[in-house]
Amino acid sequence: MYVEQFRLSRNFAFFRGRGTDEAHELHIHDCLEVGALLEDELEYRFGGRTYEGRPGDVFLCRPFEPHWSFAKPGGRFEQIIALFTPAAIRSLPDRGRLLAPFYAGVDVPPVIPGDAPQARAIVNAARRAMETQERAEPAWVTRQFMYLIDILLQVDDYALATQRAGAGSEPPSRAEAAEWVGLLLDCYRDPEAGEKLIQGAGVGRTLLYREFRNMTGLSPQAFINRLRVHTAMDLLRSTDEPMIELAESSGFQSLSAFNKQFRAYVGCAPREYRSRFRT
């Protein structure tokens, strides 16, 4: 397993991805990812789960989630991949809601089947985003950003439809848990983010922690730390902020806490990460 450091010139990008049946390691990266499969079939593995992909299917990948994809024996596949960081939509009013499906992994499956209307809309938006870049159309970066927002709105629509379909068999607290994720996505840099979650959830601490872990696989505090590290990685790549200021901008209350959590998630110190990326 290895960490892939994408050198994005901005906080979102579209590119064409092609693959064969050659085996390779599971890999992880810190970007959020949407893949729209265009041609041929593939197998996509998220950790220990494997999914069959057909043209028109859409795959969602969360940051730090081990995954790989390869074609069926003798085949080759093509997909359009959108990579972005939370900073890409920082200025949008509904940013927490649009990011929640990428973190609420239990209720939102990583595959949107090609026969779903949302998948068709995502594939179309991905094609247009790629074409506007390849043709160097006027203001193509802005146009791509509009297509990215369209894709995230379609993902949100599918997540909502999936949640409604399963509402009859799930406890009410599970439906609320997606809102808790969105709440933290909006306030994770606040020193009191954990307390704000407890106050805004409207349920007991024990139920909150249990349902939150069921949905995300993490405790609320671990989730907060991961988001803070994710923000720090983006700032390390894109700014020259001093470490202490960067730690504060990411939500950490001390440089020692920042260094500890960053090393735990990324496997190296922040300065080393910045140096590797710049190199």
From TrEMBL:
**Which Pfam families does the record cross-reference, listed alphabetically?**
AraC_binding, HTH_18
Q: Does the keyword Transcription regulation apply?
A: yes
Q: Which GO terms describe its molecular function?
A: DNA-binding transcription factor activity; sequence-specific DNA binding
PROSITE patterns, A to Z? HTH_ARAC_FAMILY_1, HTH_ARAC_FAMILY_2
Which keywords label this protein? Answer: Activator, DNA-binding, Transcription, Transcription regulation
Task: Give the protein name, as stated in the record.
Answer: AraC family transcriptional regulator
The record's annotation in InterPro entries points to: AraC-bd (IPR003313), AraC_XylS_family_regulators (IPR050204), Homeodomain-like_sf (IPR009057), HTH-like (IPR037923), HTH_AraC (IPR018060), HTH_AraC-typ_CS (IPR018062), RmlC-like_jellyroll (IPR014710)
Domain annotation HTH araC/xylS-type: ranges: 195-276
Q: Does the keyword Transferase apply?
A: no
